[in-house]
Amino acid sequence: MEFTSGMEEHLKKKEYELLGKLAHKAKSSISIMGLNELAAELKNLELIAKAGKDTEKYPVIIDKFKKETTESR
Predict the structure, then answer these.
(1) What is the Rg, in whole angstroms, of the alpha carbon atoms belonging to the chain?
(2) pTM over 0.85
(3) Are 66 and 4 a contacting pair, CB within 8 Å?
């Protein structure tokens, strides 16, 4: 999924604002798929990344996103 590589790239480069924006876009797609818990996680990532807070949580949420979107294909 294109979102995963983008999120990982923004994380690696510490581009947290861009990470938050991408999480917002991904959240919309995930909501349509009915993955509401994951959509809530992405909403959280969006908010904390845009604020530059809790950076240790970013990889955890991205990994969960990667795992769940791989399983639902």
Answers:
(1) 11
(2) yes
(3) yes
pLDDT per residue of the chain (73 residues) written in tens, 0 to 9: 589 999 999 999 999 999 999 999 999 989 998 999 999 999 999 999 999 999 999 999 999 999 998 876 5
The total of other beta-carbon atoms located within 10 Å of residue 72's CB is 11
C-alpha dihedral, 21 to 24 to 29 to 35, nearest 10°: 140
Cα distances from 43 to residues 12, 16, 36, 54, in angstroms, run 20, 14, 10, 14
d(CA 54, CA 44): 10
Category of 70 on φ-ψ map: left (φ > 0), alpha (ψ -120 to 50) or beta? alpha
> In angstroms, how far is CA 61 from the centroid of its own chain?
6
